[in-house]
Specification:
By secondary structure, this protein is α/β, with parallel strands linked by helices. It has a single domain, classed as Alpha-Beta Barrel (TIM Barrel), CATH 3.20.20. About 40% of the residues lie in helices and about 15% in strands. The protein has an eight-stranded parallel beta sheet with strand order 7-6-5-4-3-2-1-8. The protein is globular, with a radius of gyration of 17 Å.
Length: about 230
């Protein structure tokens, strides 16, 4: 399938999932994950009407941003090293991986230099997998208290990655727990505004994520396809 065919198929699956849980598809935003793809694919994605793109490697993210940034809204969705914050803040409108105090302080410092406010998702490792980044659920609320004191960071939601499962239904408890944590966070009134969003759901499990309250889906292969290009860490 080409990009338009995949986009149509994904849209149909989103509508079906929303129908099953009584949600409106307007509540769901798609982030096209363009890591490991060529510049040509990024151009095609942005030309297709998809307005949000996600990158997780700073080197590749910078080059793609410099080429295409007027055409879309940019999300940094991967683990962000503190020494790379300067390359992301002021360019990417959203950071989905706020998960430690050192990163919080560096984002705050760089954003203050630019007189900017950065939209951040706090990343929570709900599954507890050692291979995944993020705060433990138990650490979320004390961390949120620290973030609430920052003037240049606005927490717009929580983010998690579920384990890869052959049966996507097995991911449901992870997504359900992130929604519960979001609701508890709001009930505690830690922030002076509601934390609205849930960044959860990828190519293998996005329909389950929708049923459990996802508002931002991070879709790679199911949407943009797979390309046999060399993978490089930044």
């Amino acid at each position: 399938m080409n990009l338009q065919d995949r986009l149509s198929m994904v849209g149909h699956r989103i509508r079906e999932a929303c129908g099953r849980c009584g949600r409106s598809e307007e509540e769901i935003q798609i982030i096209a994950v363009t890591k490991y793809t060529t510049m040509k694919t990024v151009e095609q994605v942005l030309s297709s009407g998809i307005g949000h793109v996600g990158e997780s490697r700073t080197k590749e993210a910078q080059s793609k941003y410099e080429t295409f940034h007027p055409l879309g809204t940019w999300h940094f969705i991967g683990h962000l090293q503190t020494n790379k914050v300067k390359d992301i803040v002021g360019k990417f409108e959203y950071i989905h991986s706020l998960d430690r105090l050192s990163l919080m302080k560096e984002i705050e410092k760089k954003a203050a230099d630019l007189n900017a406010v950065v939209n951040c998702f706090i990343q929570v490792n709900v599954s507890g997998e050692k291979s995944k980044q993020g705060l433990s659920p138990e650490a979320l609320f004390s961390f949120a208290q620290e973030v609430s004191r920052m003037k240049q960071i606005r927490v717009v939601g929580l983010m998690t990655m579920a384990p890869y499962e052959l049966d996507a239904e097995a991911t449901r408890p992870v997504f359900r727990e992130l929604r519960r944590l979001r609701d508890e966070l709001n009930a505690k009134d830690i922030f002076s505004y509601p934390v609205q969003h849930l960044s959860m759901g990828m190519s293998n499990d996005f329909e389950i994520a929708i049923e459990e309250g996802a508002t931002w889906l991070r879709l790679g292969s199911v949407l943009v396809g797979e390309e046999p290009i060399q993978r490089r860490d930044a």
